[in-house]
Amino acid sequence: MSEITLYTKRTCPYCLAAKALLRGKGAAFREIDIENNRARTLEMIERSGRRTVPQIFVGDTHVGGYDDLRALEKQGGLDALLTAEV
Known about the structure:
redox-active center; globular; Glutaredoxin_subgr; disulfide bond; 4 strands; single chain; electron transport; GLR_AS
């Protein structure tokens, strides 16, 4: 299974929703809180090309934000991505 990485902020409702969706799938993830951390914020922007949180990666695949994650789940693609071998 690929490592899941989420760039988040504590007060972000979309971050909370993304974590809840992933927990509901039984998926473990690594959370990187970028609040007040300029280096991590720059890392997220460089890696994703976006400035908003959450930014979600499954392995090297950039899923996007919460809306992208939810859409992938609705389309039935999230399970396949989460169980793909690295």
